[in-house]
């Protein structure tokens, strides 16, 4: 597009929240998120991504558009995140992975996030073999959402829907082992709900209790073979960037890495021999910094936006 046309376009559309992909002003390592079409088999109370179960059951140009988009993605986008709904139950996952495979060289990291909840009709071994086939050579890193070290409590937090099974310790061990064999580290993603860190506001004795809940979680996750852990403060409209009390309880541990951006903080420590990252971010980055793009999101309805709420639409 000619420079004058770009300037004209921007002046005309800025008020409406439109941007042109070729003129994006981004943070240093922006993320490219692909939200796979399809529902989730869980219903977490803290999920900020509520949507219609049948959204985009049938899609037409999703793959073609994704392919075209990846060809034009600015060079600073070197990390791709695959998410949902629950990406592993999306019937479009194999095609999305194939499209990504064709563009693999342009990215440093492709990350897939899953709760590993599976339909009751699928045996665990069958399921794991399917993942090995699909992820090989395209996914670099898997995040498993596991919000409590006890399977039954994790199931309650995920509010797993009927007809589905929460991963048990045997499934998790087998999955991690197979992923590690094909060179994929597995990270445990844990949202700090009150089921894990309850009653921390009620005095010093409770702080000890809080710390020991986290210690138990880390011990179990390490035993299962996970490579690392990410604890995330729940997103609420005003959750802000203050550390969660659980993070504060471990503040005397050495920090090995800390990334700061205007909308999110990630601090990594080594606790009990595990890399543990504490993450906190504002609920919707585009509300706090509309002129600086934090990520691009490819939505199931084929919209490209600079956020999950589609406040800022990006034209290619
Ligand atoms: S598993 Fe993820 S997408 Fe599904 S309900 Fe929970 S937070 Fe939302």
Structure description:
With 316 residues, the protein is of the alpha/beta class. It has ten helices and 15 strands. The strands form three sheets. It has an eleven-stranded mixed β-sheet with strand order 10-11-12-9-8-6-4-3-2-13-14. Helix 3 (93-102) links the parallel strand 3 (79-83) and strand 4 (109-114). Helix 2 (62-72) packs parallel to helix 3 and helix 4 (124-135) runs parallel beside helix 6 (169-181). The longest helix is centred in the last third of the chain and has 21 residues, at 204-224. It starts with a helix and ends with a strand. Mean pLDDT is 87; it is low at 6-14. It binds iron/sulfur cluster (SF4). Iron/sulfur cluster is lined by residues 40, 42-44, 47, 49, 84-86, 115, 145, 158. Iron/sulfur cluster (SF4) is lined by residues 40, 42-44, 47, 49, 84-86, 115, 145, 158.
Kindly list the characteristics that best describe this protein.
316 residues; alpha/beta; TIM Barrel; two-stranded parallel sheet; 31% helix; 25% strand; binds iron/sulfur cluster
CATH architecture, by name, is Alpha-Beta Barrel
Portion in helices? 25-40%
Structural class: alpha/beta
Give the tally of β-strands: 15
